[in-house]
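Please predict the structure of the following assembly.
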Amino acid sequence: MANIAGSIKRRRIKGEGAWGYAFIAVALVAFAMFTAYPVVSAFMISLQEYKPLGSTYVGLDNYTNSLKDALFWKAMGNTLLYTVLTVPVNLLLSMAIAILILPLRKKTQSFFKAVYYLPVVASGVALSVVWLWIFDPMEGGIFNQLIRFFGFSNQNWLGSSSTAMFSLVLMSWLSSHGTSIIIYLAGLLGIDDAYYEAAELDGANFFQKIRYIVIPALKPATLFLLVTGVIASFQVFQNAYLMTGGGPNNATTMVGLLIFNNAFTYFEFGKAAAQSLILAVIIAGISVIQFKYAGKDVEY
Amino acid sequence: MKRKMHVLASVVALTMALTACGGKTESNTAGTSTPAASASTSTAKDTITALLPPVSPNYQKTFEQIAKDFNAANPNLTLKIEPASWEDMTQKLDTQVNAGSPPDIAFIGSEGISKYVQQGMVLDITDTATKEMVADYDKAPLEYMKNGKGLYGFPAYMEVHALGGNKAYLEKAGIDWKKVQQNGWTFEEFREAIKKGVIKENGQTSTYGFVFATKGVAAKDYLGIMAKNAGMPAPFDKDLKYAYTSKNYLGLLKNLRQLIDDGSMPKELSSVDAGKRWNMFLTGQTMITGKGLATFENSAKANNAKITANDGSAVKGSIPVDYIVLPAPTFQGAKPSSSTVVDGYVTFRGKKEPTAEHKANVVKAAYFLASGKVAATTNNDLFAAHITQSGKKAAESMKIDRSADNVIAVDNMLKNATPARPDIPSDLGAKAIKLETEVIVPKFQGLIAGEITAEAMYEAVKTAAIAAFGDNGIVKD
């Protein structure tokens, strides 16, 4: 009897295992086709001078040439600067907005969630057109009207090296917080009221509650947003492409835009693939560092 | 765990197999060459594909009729047209080219040919285009479709990059625009003229003398058009030495900066894009604009009609404008060399070698699109000059409402059209494009934004040119 039961159990495990692998296989095949294959393919292309009618193997030339290219490092520097200026500020702004929205009535809260989330679902091109109008360097531009009110002269926001990067950063600060706000709100709603009640009994003020309850409790969400924010920021392309084209004087040329130009302007797919993989390694390295130092006391 | 490893191994194996397949195809097709093909009279059924943007306002509306007419003339052939927007065109075509399966015909600018020659994906039709077809074309535009010894398609039109003036403003500023249309003008004459066009109200400039779109890559158009009139009609001289290291280039840069320093052009010029400069022209914020094409006269007229109709469809704040075609000025005593744009139907090949019959059919279709009634209709819609005898003949019965003065002005400029340079090898051309994109455009943006001097830009270009072409590969004067 025991033998029969054991045999049924074994068969059941076998059957369950097969079904499990069958279900996983769908995801694995999709992953292999749409993620693993392009990455492997990009690596192979990065070792070639790619041409549709026959590529030439060039070894690591595309990597060494990229690493020797001053424009690549300038683009890397621009991307790093953009990341340093945007990611932390965006996290702070999103957290602050989420904290301000939290106590509102449900309908009002939903209204603000929708308002902040709207740019996430809107077309990036359409948003860029609006921002181009806001940054219009002539008298009609909103920012120029605003600064003229305070007695400053017109600024050539996107057309001057001294203000172009700041303009893109400003654009990032003032938009696209929708996803972060929703994630922070979800995190805030998960904090037990008992912590606040205990803090109140101890006489903690608003900022002390933020410092000792909210920020530690939101650490998992912050780590997630920090890692994904840095990855997205390192891959920034659309803003630079649509707003400045990388100019003036390469002041806003980001690595993403440089890779695009190498691939689609010069048809140097090998170099573009090599630069993509260098970027991927850098992003992976930064993510590991973030997990190591910011994620060691995070509980999930 | 063992089982999981098997699954993982299978995935890796599948990935490697797929990758290996891709690599094999590439190496198998490497080094294939196009055998000579002869004109074919085969009656076997065939389909020719064409990727076409909205060349003129009404062009895409006529696709069905074009395909029908082509089929009527060639019953065994089907012309399958895929429409594309101008925005999508390059990316769509590039993706198809790099996948090894481009359309048979695509409408692109002739300057794009060299990049596809480098890829080996354009179809040389020298041996397939008949003598009659070639004889139908004006020589100058046809040359633009050549690279080296190869002919890679048929041109649709040759337009001149002119400037456009507001007639009322020009006359108010005392500028004899008819004389300029006939004789051109020097930089000094142009500089004085646009100074007179500036109008100030309450200390602020309400109308500039001249506005050219220079935002982003548009900066290269401004510099390129002016450089042609400064004794540098191409990036390479006849000895294939890089020309933009000439002292004339430094002089040109200084002159272009002067126009901003004079206040004749806005100091925010580096942020003015094509749409904005046209809006500024229609709203009276500039007397002269560039770059202008003949079709702009049509656009200005259309806006005038909307102002008259007063139905709110006109550009906000616009005023009635009579569009006057003007040539670009000449610099430092150089001969005029008008910048032209030659776009046309470029022929492509895929990874698979096209048969002689298919090649002949592609040529038939490209010629059909680029000549006769189709070309006449499209070019009239664009106000562009006809460049084929068959197009000119077909256009005789078509009515066009165009200023006679502007027609003469364009004809004058076309007499000085910059000749094509099919002798520039594609690898040199590619290096020049890269230098333009990575050094010239960024530095020029800096120059017009007032962040670097003309001398600093010139030195940067010279240094990059020596790095790209060698010390002996550049012009030294």
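The mean pLDDT of chain A is 89. Strands of chain A lie at 48-49, 56-57.
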